[in-house]
Task: structure prediction
Amino acid sequence: MAKGDKSKKARKVYAKDDAGRAAKFKDFAALRVTRALRSLRAVGKLANKRAYGYTPEQVTKIGEALNAELQRVADAFKGGAKSADSFEL
Result:
């Protein structure tokens, strides 16, 4: 393969039965939760007062947005609410 080629990774094929859907859920959950945790750690790095300036109100707003989204995710597993697509301070 030449430098710069962007070959696509082969996609895993899942069976359409319950076992296939469960395997797909497990695989995707591991990837997505890992990515979400990494993103949360990145948000946590904003607490570095040597690099950033922020108000208590901004901290509260970030915390409320994160908690609200986490609650929406939990509710979605119970058949509930839709998530917000963006956030602004």
